[in-house]
Write a structure and sequence with these properties.
With 309 residues, this protein is of the alpha/beta class. It folds into two domains: 129 residues, Cytidine Deaminase, domain 2, CATH 3.40.140; 168 residues, Dihydrofolate Reductase, subunit A, CATH 3.40.430. Helix content is 25%, strand content 25%. It has a seven-stranded mixed sheet with strand order 9-8-10-6-11-14-13, with helices on both faces. A five-stranded mixed sheet has the order 2-1-3-4-5. A two-stranded antiparallel sheet has the order 7-12. It is elongated, with a radius of gyration of 21 Å. The relative contact order is 0.13.
C-alpha cells in the first residue's frame, strides 16, 4: 500500500475535480502493474495499472488508495467493473470513497463478483493523500495550505520590506515542490503589487506544474476567503501571503494545513510580522487547534507541517 500511496502523490494537483489515487497490482510477490490518476482525472489509477498488468492481473492482488469507483462515465468505465473483469483475486482498499455515486458500492460490487476485499489499510495516510478531494466533497471548497517563511521571532521581512531571502535554497526549493502539488496559488493584492511574485514552479522537470495564480482583492473575483468555494477544478489551494491575507484565512477557519519554514535568524520588533489579527480574544482558544504531522531540516532551516487537530 505504501507504493500505491507514493504513486497517488504523482497526481496530486493535476486530477481535480477527481481524486488523486494510486494502484499497484501484485502477483506471486511481483509487481505487475502500477497506475495513478492521470491529469484531468482520467484514466483512473486502476485502469492504468490493469492495462500495464494485462493477463498477469488474473489471480493477482490490487492495492488501491481509494475505493474503486462504481459509476459509469462517458470518459471511462467503472473501476470496480474493470477489476472484476480482470479476474483479480483480492482488492486491498485504504479508504472508502465518500462520493455518493460510489460510497461502498464499489467494494460491494467486487465482493459480488467473488473477489476478496480488505478495507482500512493505511487509512490515515490515504486520507491525508486525498485531502483535497475529501474536503471538496465535505465542505464544498478546496483543501487550503497556508505557507509561512519566518525568522525565529516570527518576522517575514525587515521594516523596510526587504525579505529576500529569509530562508535558504533548500527551503525555497521545497516551497516550489509544494506549489507543484496544488492546482492554484493565492496571494493578497498588496503582495502582488509590491512584490510582483512569479508564483510559479522553477524546479527542473516540473516547470509545467505551475499552479493557477489567484489574487485576494476587494475588486476581484475573490473578495474574501469564503469565495474560494466558487473555484472550480481546484482541490488544493496554496496560500502564500501576505500577513493580512494569511490572517484572513485563519480568522475564517479555512486553513487546513500550516506549512512553516523557520530560518535561524532574528529580525527584531521593528520587522514585519508573519500574521495580522486572527481574531483571538482568549489565549485558551489558541490551544489544541493544531497538531504537528511532519518536521525536517532543509539545509539550515526547519520545516514543520501542522494539520487541524
Amino acid at each position: 500500500m505504501g507504493a500505491a500511496l507514493a504513486l497517488a502523490e504523482r497526481g496530486r494537483g493535476r486530477t481535480a475535480p477527481n481524486p488523486n489515487v494510486g494502484c499497484v497490482i501484485v502477483r506471486d510477490g511481483i509487481v505487475v502493474g502500477r497506475g495513478w490518476t492521470q491529469p484531468g482525472g482520467r484514466p483512473h489509477a486502476e485502469a492504468m495499472a490493469l492495462a500495464q498488468a494485462g493477463e498477469k492481473s488474473r489471480g493477482a492482488t490490487a492495492y488501491v488508495t481509494l475505493e474503486p469507483c462504481a459509476h459509469e462515465s462517458a470518459r471511462g468505465p467503472a473501476c470496480s467493473n474493470l477489476l472484476a473483469a480482470a479476474d483479480v483475486a483480492r482488492v486491498v482498499i485504504a479508504l472508502g470513497d465518500p462520493d455518493p455515486r460510489t460510497n461502498g458500492a464499489g467494494a460491494a460490487r467486487l465482493r459480488a463478483a467473488g473477489i476478496e476485499v480488505i478495507e482500512g489499510v493505511s487509512t490515515e495516510e490515504a486520507r491525508r493523500s486525498t485531502a483535497g478531494f475529501l474536503t471538496r466533497l465535505a465542505s464544498g471548497r478546496p483543501f487550503v495550505t497556508l505557507k509561512l517563511a519566518t525568522s525565529l521571532d516570527g518576522r517575514i521581512a525587515l521594516a523596510s520590506g526587504e525579505s529576500k531571502w529569509i530562508t535558504g535554497e533548500q527551503a525555497r526549493a521545497h516551497t516550489h515542490l509544494e506549489r507543484a502539488r496544488h492546482e492554484a496559488i493565492l496571494v493578497g493584492r498588496r503582495t502582488m503589487e509590491i512584490d510582483t511574485p512569479r508564483l510559479d514552479v522553477r524546479l527542473p522537470g516540473l516547470e509545467d506544474r505551475s499552479p493557477r495564480r489567484l489574487v485576494l482583492s476587494a475588486a476581484g473575483e475573490l473578495k474574501s476567503p469564503v469565495d474560494i468555494a466558487k473555484l472550480e477544478g481546484i482541490n488544493h489551494l496554496f496560500v502564500e501571503g501576505g500577513a493580512e491575507t494569511a490572517a484572513s484565512f485563519l480568522r475564517a477557519g479555512l486553513v487546513d494545513r500550516l506549512l512553516l519554514y523557520r530560518a535561524p535568524i532574528l529580525i527584531g520588533g521593528d520587522g514585519r510580522p508573519a500574521l495580522g489579527d486572527i481574531g483571538l480574544t482568549r489565549l485558551g482558544d489558541a490551544q489544541d487547534r493544531w497538531r504537528l504531522v511532519e518536521s525536517r531540516m532543509l539545509g539550515k532551516d526547519r520545516m514543520e507541517a501542522y494539520e487541524r487537530a
